Amino acid sequence: MAKKKPNKNTPPKKHSKRHQKMGKAPGTVIYMGYRDGGSTSVNVLEYDENSILERTIDPDTPDGLTFIEELTASPTTTWIDVIGLSDESFVEKLGKTLGLNPLSIEDAVNTNQRAKIDEYDNYIFGVFKMLYLDAENELVAEHVALVLSKNTVVVFQELKDDVFNGLRDRITNKTGRIRSRSADYLFFALLDAIIDHYYVVLENVNLKIELLEEEVYENPKSRTAHKIQELKKEVLRIRRYVYPVKELVNKLIDSEHELISKDTKLFLRDAMDHSTEINESLQIYREMSMSLMEMYMSNISNKMNEVMKVLTIMASIFIPLTFIVGVYGMNFDNMPELKMPNGYFYVWGLMLIIFIGLLIYFKKKRWL
Amino acid sequence: MAKKKPNKNTPPKKHSKRHQKMGKAPGTVIYMGYRDGGSTSVNVLEYDENSILERTIDPDTPDGLTFIEELTASPTTTWIDVIGLSDESFVEKLGKTLGLNPLSIEDAVNTNQRAKIDEYDNYIFGVFKMLYLDAENELVAEHVALVLSKNTVVVFQELKDDVFNGLRDRITNKTGRIRSRSADYLFFALLDAIIDHYYVVLENVNLKIELLEEEVYENPKSRTAHKIQELKKEVLRIRRYVYPVKELVNKLIDSEHELISKDTKLFLRDAMDHSTEINESLQIYREMSMSLMEMYMSNISNKMNEVMKVLTIMASIFIPLTFIVGVYGMNFDNMPELKMPNGYFYVWGLMLIIFIGLLIYFKKKRWL
Amino acid sequence: MAKKKPNKNTPPKKHSKRHQKMGKAPGTVIYMGYRDGGSTSVNVLEYDENSILERTIDPDTPDGLTFIEELTASPTTTWIDVIGLSDESFVEKLGKTLGLNPLSIEDAVNTNQRAKIDEYDNYIFGVFKMLYLDAENELVAEHVALVLSKNTVVVFQELKDDVFNGLRDRITNKTGRIRSRSADYLFFALLDAIIDHYYVVLENVNLKIELLEEEVYENPKSRTAHKIQELKKEVLRIRRYVYPVKELVNKLIDSEHELISKDTKLFLRDAMDHSTEINESLQIYREMSMSLMEMYMSNISNKMNEVMKVLTIMASIFIPLTFIVGVYGMNFDNMPELKMPNGYFYVWGLMLIIFIGLLIYFKKKRWL
Amino acid sequence: MAKKKPNKNTPPKKHSKRHQKMGKAPGTVIYMGYRDGGSTSVNVLEYDENSILERTIDPDTPDGLTFIEELTASPTTTWIDVIGLSDESFVEKLGKTLGLNPLSIEDAVNTNQRAKIDEYDNYIFGVFKMLYLDAENELVAEHVALVLSKNTVVVFQELKDDVFNGLRDRITNKTGRIRSRSADYLFFALLDAIIDHYYVVLENVNLKIELLEEEVYENPKSRTAHKIQELKKEVLRIRRYVYPVKELVNKLIDSEHELISKDTKLFLRDAMDHSTEINESLQIYREMSMSLMEMYMSNISNKMNEVMKVLTIMASIFIPLTFIVGVYGMNFDNMPELKMPNGYFYVWGLMLIIFIGLLIYFKKKRWL
Amino acid sequence: MAKKKPNKNTPPKKHSKRHQKMGKAPGTVIYMGYRDGGSTSVNVLEYDENSILERTIDPDTPDGLTFIEELTASPTTTWIDVIGLSDESFVEKLGKTLGLNPLSIEDAVNTNQRAKIDEYDNYIFGVFKMLYLDAENELVAEHVALVLSKNTVVVFQELKDDVFNGLRDRITNKTGRIRSRSADYLFFALLDAIIDHYYVVLENVNLKIELLEEEVYENPKSRTAHKIQELKKEVLRIRRYVYPVKELVNKLIDSEHELISKDTKLFLRDAMDHSTEINESLQIYREMSMSLMEMYMSNISNKMNEVMKVLTIMASIFIPLTFIVGVYGMNFDNMPELKMPNGYFYVWGLMLIIFIGLLIYFKKKRWL
After folding, report:
1. Cα angle vertex B52, ends B46, B56, to 5°?
2. Predicted TM-score (pTM) of this structure
3. What's the CA gap between E316 and E367, in Å, rounded?
4. In which band, very low, low, confident or very high, does the pLDDT at A37 lie, cut at 50, 70 and 90?
5. N-to-C CA span, chain C
6. Interface list for B 186-245 with A (CB within 8 A)
7. Closest CA of chain B from C124, distance in Å
8. In what side-by-side order are the strands of the sheet with D77-83?
């Protein structure tokens, strides 16, 4: 736990990235992730209640951007999924095609960006963190940026991840009401999928707490304290990603932006319920991990007490006895007891009395 | 305490339920409880100041829904009690008959739903947790959903529970003012019955604290710390269910929804007083359980101190004496003291002086 | 401290009372105190700037209520003091005579009611806790309900207590401006008398903290920790009664109820100052009691350190010496040192050197 | 630290004062300080940009009040400095002359009054605490009440203190802009002088923290913990006096009272900056004193560890060796080793091996 | 860590500076830094989209101020950089030339001033702290004051520092959009550069935490606790400088001052995001440093436990054995065992049994 193994999901040179950006003008589009040189692909899903069209766009051809421009103008709902953000120049061109503010384009590829929602005149821009567990059950936070404009939702993400798979299926299979609703509902559905996945991560934390609780109660080791601290840090980390979401959803509900319909706000109210619940859970996990540490400390103290009792009992019983036998090991010429025929047995008797007396004393003190 | 026995009141496969829902569209009606396959029954109570009619409806016949539709339209107050939520399709049909939003129907059977109040144009929807103690004195939280529409209150709950029994009696026996008032008063009375039952649970917590306090003061054991931690978790759990209620009642009071009359708001003000009082109690219980842990730790330290004192006194007295008798156990050819006729008794005298000196020393240090 | 003696001021069967109420309709007038069967007396004080009339009313005659009704209508200020609340039916009749809402009448005899202020169209209803110290210096909280209506103030209380005695004297002796002012000033003056008495209780807490501080510094015992915890609980209890008052007074100041004149609000501002000060004091007492516990723990640790040092010094000095004398107590045939004429004295020399060496070592470590 | 010496700056009989007031009407002017029977003097400073007049008024002559009444009416700025508050009747007469509300006059001599600002139609009344260090470097808090009315500022204080000396000099020597500005600027300047002096007290706290930090790191003693607790209490005490000031200054800035000009508000903004800074410092000092206690506890634990290590090493090395020499001190007739010519030296060899082995073991454990 | 070396970046006589100011009128321009007698230089950068002019002004000639006055009037954007603040009279003259309020001029050279933003009719004045790490990796906080007036931004700073170097390059090299925008964008860009540098400091804290975490886990020493406390103090210090920035930027965004264009507010929103993120990080670092201390304490306790176990095992095994050999070292005339031919070997057998028995006992207790 003390030494971290290099993890393919952890940015290896985050610092240098941050430094690279320092001193640059705001709005400069710099990819802040650690998956440089990855390829970028664009999937487009165009649908209305009756028809659905799925297409992949080649980011290296100008036709792609033209096609996107056309889609944006059409009355059907369009979901543009940009996967892989390391190709900064393409993202910048795409952003301009969609009419995004340079600051939004910058944030779309800034994988360090905190969760946020910015309203512009013609679109709403949001950044969130998708949380999931990797193969080694470690927490991974992936950056995702969402743009809601008229009839169009654009998703910027790093990996072709499965958080939105259920949603894609619902659109394709015409399950639920999504096909009959407009882009703002799609925006909500994406947000809802992200929030829903937070529960998976929370359940994992809950499980870890239960396991640690058992470890603390049954067999606390020195490593247990480390594990509790690691858990606390994980909760802090999750809270950092998840905490702002509630306020952001609330902002959307209170927003008077024309892109968010009153109907969708009912659904957003649901999403806010979930965010509130998640924040409450995290608060509870935080208190529980602090209780775990307390419990651990009290267990250590209890163990020390037990150790001390054994020592004290052993020493208190045998030290006086050893003194007595030492007395009769002295070599004085004149020691009357030594001459007594039963002296040796009297001494044993005396020691037995002391022994039993001390046992009773410790029994009364409930140390035995 | 460390190992939890399986409890018939605890959902055994909550995780799988949650996963089942993930990726589904919001508004999909999925029963989240753990009492699958239970039967659903519907009790209807229709009353005005003069007459009262009680009926049970068979959920499997379409006549039931038609009857409910008629009742809803009539000017008398109707209390529809849906008991057992695992029959999702019936609940969905009933919800549509009552004109509920799909999101409300979803929440009616979502037993994991946090306490909430949602206002819609034609009805008010609330979810609360009924808390009570089971036969083993363990805390149980049951989901209950309330719908207030014109002249009608619908209650969705899992068990034919007794929280509302007093209220049913008051209506049947025409006690109190309930018969002469409209549906919003019934809604308040249901809420009031739920909040009133929180006090039972709080009193149980209070009792546990008093017992633990005595245990900590009188005879703290290693298990005591576990019990304190369990108590803390129980308080956290109750708080989670109960805490939102105050704000929700306040929302109802501030609400301008036409279904809540000014008169009923006076009563809601009373309910809010109770919620505030409950939240304050929980806060106090929380602080008291933290104090208990502190007290426990200080008791452990005190005990350790006592153990150490016994060891130190025993060792400090007998170790020097043992050294002295060791000296005269040496076998040197030339040890003048050994030849002295009273040497042995002089040594006893010396040891007695040392013994008394040390006793005085420890007495002065207040260790004895 | 651990076992509580039965206290004549503590409700012996509070739980049963609470249960008795459960399931009853809100507004049902049930006396929640523990002084059942006590007698009820009603004292009336009617005054204006020039005249004053004091009367006792027999609650068992209908004339009493008629008389009260007349008083309420007269333009002079009337202070009605209802002492003893266990006669529920009289209180209910009186409440109806005064035109009180059933909820207010319920709260007037609900001695568990949290501090509150409710505004109604024709009167203002407040519940507060009078705090004082009983003969054994224990904290007692008495329920008091105040009603301010036009020209009349009604006080519902359990005992003919002395908190309002100063105020009665001021009215009778025409001291201060109270005789020349209307009922809202009397209402304020009653509230002010209650708040003023909180200081007495706070001073008692302060004194306890000072005594405990001295005990912790001078001679901490195992009982000291218990006392600190009891103090903490007392502060929590006082805070519970006192904390809401500030907000309630503020509510009165902000209120636009016609019964509160602008002039009286100036005085209420003063009362709020006092409430704020009391809350701040309680906050400080809370922090100080936590510091006391910290101090206590550090003192225990220091004592343990001292104990350990004595043990370590004794053991470290005599264990090696005992080993040396053990060596020359061995019975080998061939031990050259034993034959040396001065061997015995050489060993003493060696032991002296070791003894002094260890003393110097411990001195350098500042353990001596 | 544990025993407090009587301090000439500490009220010796505060309790009795408080009790004396209890039951009195609000607005009763009772001096709450502990400097009874002190003399009262009144210094008046009248100035405009060109002229300045300084006078001392004899409080025992009616002429004084007449003179003050004339000054108040004149267009020049007047600073009336009332020093010594124990003459309640004079303060009351003066207050009436100045047109003050009885509540303000009461607060002017109520030295226990918390910091406050009350706005009246024709004047603004403020109470603050001047903090300084007495000759023994102990914190002293003096009550000061300020009244701002048209062209006049009245200061009620207990001692002819030096907090305002710099301000007096600036007026007399025509330094700064104060001579050319009106009374509200003088009011601000007095407030500013009070706040400025808080920094002196804070610096003293900072110094104490640094000294304690060194003591904790270098040579923590049992007394050190007491000192840390005393520091914490001092910070709590200062915070109590200083904390409300920020909010009060803010209230003045937001006030629409005609006595505060827009220009003076710019200066008040500066005073609020200082109050904010002071509150932040106190917060930091609070956290630092808690850290100090933590550090102290960790140091005690470290010391205990060290003590235990010495004991364990000494005991673990010599106890086995003593056992071995004990073996060969037995008196069995048949003990072959004793007959061996080099048996004694073999035993020494064995003991040396054990000794070195244990040293290596402890070295490996890093206990040496 | 305990003794601070004199640091060239730390004000050596801050106290005297503060005292010097006490009693002075507000608005008195006194340099509060510790770089007295340093020279002052003024660099001017004038630019619009097409042209750029850089000049250094000699503060000792009146021409300089005249030139600045002309620049301020011209429509091009002017960045005036005042480096070195100890020449109070020049700063005062410059301030008057720029039309600044005396309070702003005072704050421009008051290096103790907390971060603030004051809006005046014709300019906006801000004070911030630039944080960086000096050559010894210690945190340094430098005062910087910014003035935004029409077409002009003035920067008051102590050192020709590199925080703004990137910005200067962007202007000179016409990178980014800065050249085409007006003064309010320059003001934002300066603020953004300051905030960007906070990340460097935070990364350093993060690194320290990671190193300390390893030290605590691997090899905690007494010094480690000191380092953790120093870290906590550093976090407190950074928080003090950085915390107000978020609120200040928010104030600018909400401001309706005509100098801040709607366009620039979009960028300020970005700066606020960063401030929020920084505050969250500091909060997390704070919790992590508290966890570190907890971990450290639990490690000490664990170590103590281990030490005690070694002692207890050694003592518990050898003390009884030593007693046994002591028994047979007694010199009684009549001790039958001594005469037995194999007595010696029987005793060894007995001791072996005890030895093995105790080993098993400790093994079962998991102490071995």
Report:
1. 55
2. 0.87
3. 12
4. low
5. 38
6. 219, 222, 225-226, 229, 232-233, 236, 240
7. 13
8. D52-57, D41-47, D77-83, D152-157, D139-149, D123-133, D116-119
Tell which CATH architecture fits domain D23-297: 2-Layer Sandwich (3.30)
Mean pLDDT for C152-178 is 85
Is residue D216 classed as helix, strand or coil in its secondary structure?
helix
pLDDT in tens, A277-293: 999 999 999 999 999 99
CA E155 – CA B7 distance, rounded (Å): 69
How far apart are the C-alpha atoms of D9 and C106, rounded to whole Å? 51
Nearest Cα of chain C lies from the Cα of B14 at a distance, in angstroms, of 33
Q: Which residues of C touch D333 (CB under 8 A)?
A: none
Per-residue pLDDT at E10: 46
Tokens encoding A244: 């702002």
Rg for chain C, CA atoms, rounded: 34
Instruction: Determine the residue type at E95.
Output: G
pLDDT at E19 over 80: no
3-state helix, strand, coil in chain D (%, to 5): 55, 15, 30
Q: What is the C-alpha separation between E43 and E49, in angstroms, rounded?
A: 20
Kindly report, residue by residue over A326-341, the tens digit of the pLDDT. 999 999 999 999 999 9
Taking the C-alpha atoms of residue C320 and residue C315, their distance in angstroms, rounded to an integer, is 8
Selection from E264, E77, E102, E87 nearest residue E154 by Cα: E77
Interchain contact, A332 vs B314, CB within 8 Å: no
Say if residue D152 is exposed, middle or buried (CB neighbours under 10 Å; 0-12, 13-18, 19+).
Answer: buried
- Element at E248 (helix H, strand E): helix E222-254
| Residues in B 270-309 with any Cβ partner in C closer than 8 A | 270, 273, 276-277, 280, 284, 287-288, 291, 294-295, 297-299, 301-302, 304-305, 308-309
Q: How far is CA E241 from CA A336, D198, E247, E268, in A?
A: 85, 20, 12, 19
Token output for A41: 């692909």
Distance from CA of A243 to the nearest CA of B (A): 17
Give yes or no for residue B285 having a pLDDT over 90: yes
User: What local confidence, expressed as pLDDT, does residue E14 receive?
Assistant: 46
Mutate which: E239, E302, E318, vs D, most D CBs within 10 A: E318
pLDDT, position C19: 61
- Determine the Cα–Cα distance for residues E77 and E66; give it in Å rounded to an integer: 17
Question: pLDDT tens-digit profile of D124-183?
Answer: 999 999 998 888 888 989 999 999 999 999 999 988 767 888 888 888 887 777 888 889
Per CB-CB distance under 8 Å, the chain D contacts of C308 are 304, 307-308, 311
Please give the residue of chain A at the shortest CA–CA distance from E212. Answer: A2
Residue burial D255-284, b: 16+ Cβ < 10 Å; e: rest:
eeeebbeeebbbbbbbbbbbbbbbbbbbbb
CATH code of the domain made up of B303-364: 1.20.58.340
Q: Which has the closest alpha carbon to D93: D50, D61, D132, D47?
A: D61
Beta-carbon separation of A291 and B322 below 8 A: no
**Closest CB from B18, B226, B331 relative to A199:** B18
Is D343 part of the contact surface with chain E (CB cutoff 8 Å)? Answer: no
Is the minimum CB–CB distance between C312 and chain B shorter than 8 Å?
Answer: no
Q: Which amino acid is at B87?
A: D
Residue of E267, E280, E323 with shortest CB distance to A321: E323
Q: CA-to-CA distance for E210 and A14, rounded, in angstroms?
A: 15
**In contact, D281 and D269? CB cutoff 8 Å:** no
* DSSP strand pairing (A52-57 vs A139-149): unpaired
Q: Which of C192, C273, C319 sits opposite D319 (nearest CB)?
A: C319
Domains of chain E, by residue range, sit at 23-297, 303-364
Q: Are A202 and A282 in contact (CB under 8 A)?
A: yes
Interface test with B, best of C294, C298, C314, C368 (most B CBs within 10 A): C314
